[in-house]
Structures are given as structure tokens and as C-alpha cells.
């Protein structure tokens, strides 16, 4: 069985591969985040618009800087900083400082401002499958049904799944330090969200900057510059530590006509059941669409 070179061909191989890549070295010089006044943490669940929001934030605070090789170099990812040997507390290119994360609220560094796009579980699951298959899994080796078993048990670095993450941030929706968004609403009403985001971060945004940020967070623009949004630093680590082949498809931006799987009805039913079991009793919403509509109404009233 191949266990130390190349992409995983089964979920049994995936676990050890991910451990080799993502286990950080023991380096006492690498400290946890020390928040400063005004710091912003973008922390959706994985595959919920993180890269777009990193780009939106960086373009707003710099007025259009694109002199970087990896968006996570200028808006660093808290959880992978130790793996990459990055000083998460270093000065950044502009103020306010910004960070990427996928942490739930209970594990987030305190004293920051938090920006959290939420997304329905079905698209999140499918996006995660496409992402893993293009990078860590040999294409065609693991079915959607098999991957669902992996994804549904995925607890992240701090023991939280999709449902835990959503509830932790939903509970913060009325707090002044938290901006809760809907991923689909960000895409559909980009200009409104940019203004809301800039105000939340304390960044002045005139019409010229609004136009620039809207353009540079579009799918077409980010796809044309996808080498900045393909996890270049982590891809290098995955090749060096995990033995993955060079040139894996780690791009976060996919063209609108890229091949996509459909959500199998059996998995959709399981996600619906999990929502009714874990989310409805807490939020009162029958499904994600109802929660999203409530969230968008609140955001629109405040704008």
C-alpha cells in the first residue's frame, strides 16, 4: 500500500498524509496570536468564501495591493502559521491587521473583530470534495458517499464540525465585534457587502475603491490571477512533507464551467436531517434558506 508518496488513493491513506503535512514542528519561537486593537479575523467554515473575503479585506485596506504570491502571506492563516514557520504576530503590510481562520468562536483569539460568511452545508461539502480531490486525493479514487463519511467526522484542529462552527457564530450575530454574512448574499450583493465590511473594519471606502474591490473580488478577475489564490505556501509544504506531485490543483477559484458533481439525494437527506437535529432546535430555522433570509434582512436593515 502506498503511504508515503503521491496523492492518497483511499481515506485510509488520507489520514496519515494529512498528518505528515499539517503536524507543526515544535518551535518555541512560534507564539500564538497576540491580538492588537482593530485586528480582523475572517473565520468561515472551510469552503465558505474565505479566499474571496481575504482578498476583499486586503484590497480595502491597501487600496489595491497585488504584490504578493499567496493571499495567505499578506492575510495569514492562523492555524497553518506554525507549519509554515510564519510569525503570526509580525507586522503586516497595512492596518488593520487581518487573519484567516476556520476556528469556531470558542477557539478564536479574543479581542478581535470577526467576519464570518455562512454557507449551506451541501455546497460546502461538494466544494470540499472538489478541493481534496484536486490536491490530496487521487481523482476518482474516493466516491462522494465515502467522502461524506470523512467530512461528517471532520472535527478540525479544535474539535468542531460544520454544525458546531455555525452555531458558535450564530450565537454572536448581534455582538458589535462580529459581522455575520451569507456567502451567497456576498456574491449577489457585492457592493453592499463591501461597504458593510469596510465600515466594520474602520476603513474608508469611496466609490473608486468600491469599484476596484468589486472588480478584484469577482470570479473572473481572481481566476485570471489564480496563482495568488492557490495556497502556494501550503502546496510547497505538501510537496516537501507529503510527497505530493508538483502542480496539484490547489486553486481556490474554479471557473464557472469547471466540472462539478451534483449532491446525491441520499447525502442531501442526511444533511437535512442533521440540520433539523442540531440547528433548528437552537435557531428556530427549518433550513439554511430560512436562516439566511433572516440574516440578510438584518444586514439590510442595518445598512
UniProtKB/TrEMBL annotation:
<feature type="region of interest" description="Disordered">
    <location>
        <begin position="239"/>
        <end position="265"/>
    </location>
</feature>
<feature type="domain" description="Sulfotransferase">
    <location>
        <begin position="39"/>
        <end position="224"/>
    </location>
</feature>
<feature type="compositionally biased region" description="Basic and acidic residues">
    <location>
        <begin position="251"/>
        <end position="260"/>
    </location>
</feature>
<dbReference type="InterPro" id="IPR000863">
    <property type="entry name" value="Sulfotransferase_dom"/>
</dbReference>
<protein>
    <submittedName>
        <fullName>Sulfotransferase domain-containing protein</fullName>
    </submittedName>
</protein>
<feature type="compositionally biased region" description="Basic and acidic residues">
    <location>
        <begin position="1"/>
        <end position="12"/>
    </location>
</feature>
<dbReference type="Pfam" id="PF00685">
    <property type="entry name" value="Sulfotransfer_1"/>
</dbReference>
<comment type="similarity">
    <text>Belongs to the sulfotransferase 1 family.</text>
</comment>
<dbReference type="GO" id="GO:0008146">
    <property type="term" value="F:sulfotransferase activity"/>
</dbReference>
<feature type="compositionally biased region" description="Pro residues">
    <location>
        <begin position="25"/>
        <end position="35"/>
    </location>
</feature>
<dbReference type="InterPro" id="IPR027417">
    <property type="entry name" value="P-loop_NTPase"/>
</dbReference>
<feature type="region of interest" description="Disordered">
    <location>
        <begin position="1"/>
        <end position="39"/>
    </location>
</feature>
<keyword id="KW-0808">Transferase</keyword>
Amino acid at each position: 500500500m502506498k503511504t508515503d508518496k503521491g496523492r492518497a488513493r483511499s481515506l485510509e491513506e488520507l489520514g496519515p498524509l494529512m498528518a505528515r503535512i499539517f503536524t507543526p514542528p515544535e518551535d518555541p519561537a512560534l507564539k500564538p496570536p497576540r491580538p492588537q486593537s482593530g485586528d480582523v479575523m475572517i473565520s468561515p467554515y472551510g469552503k465558505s468564501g474565505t479566499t474571496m473575503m481575504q482578498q476583499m479585506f486586503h484590497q480595502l485596506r491597501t487600496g489595491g495591493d497585488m504584490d504578493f504570491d499567496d493571499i495567505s502571506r499578506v492575510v495569514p492563516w492562523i492555524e497553518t502559521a506554525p507549519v509554515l514557520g510564519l510569525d503570526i504576530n509580525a507586522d503586516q503590510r497595512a492596518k488593520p491587521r487581518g487573519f484567516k481562520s476556520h476556528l469556531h468562536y470558542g477557539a478564536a483569539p479574543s479581542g478581535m473583530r470577526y467576519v464570518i460568511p455562512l454557507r449551506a452545508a451541501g455546497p460546502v461539502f461538494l466544494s470540499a470534495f472538489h478541493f481534496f480531490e484536486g490536491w490530496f486525493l487521487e481523482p476518482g479514487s474516493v466516491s462522494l458517499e465515502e467522502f461524506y463519511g470523512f467530512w461528517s467526522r471532520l472535527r478540525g484542529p479544535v474539535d468542531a464540525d460544520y454544525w458546531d462552527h455555525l452555531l458558535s457564530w450564530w450565537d454572536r450575530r448581534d455582538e458589535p465585534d462580529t459581522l455575520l454574512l451569507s456567502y451567497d448574499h456576498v456574491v449577489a450583493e457585492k457592493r453592499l457587502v463591501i461597504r458593510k465590511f469596510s465600515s466594520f473594519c474602520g476603513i474608508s471606502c469611496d466609490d473608486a475603491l468600491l469599484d476596484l474591490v468589486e472588480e478584484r473580488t469577482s470570479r473572473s478577475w481572481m481566476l485570471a490571477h489564480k496563482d495568488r489564490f492557490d495556497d502556494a505556501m501550503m502546496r510547497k509544504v505538501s510537496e516537501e512533507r507529503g510527497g505530493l506531485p508538483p502542480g496539484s490543483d490547489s486553486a481556490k477559484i474554479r471557473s464557472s464551467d469547471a466540472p462539478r458533481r451534483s449532491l446525491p439525494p441520499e447525502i442531501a437527506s442526511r444533511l437535512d436531517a442533521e440540520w433539523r437535529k442540531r440547528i433548528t432546535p437552537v435557531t428556530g430555522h427549518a433550513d439554511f434558506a430560512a436562516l439566511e433570509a433572516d440574516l440578510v434582512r438584518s444586514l439590510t436593515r442595518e445598512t
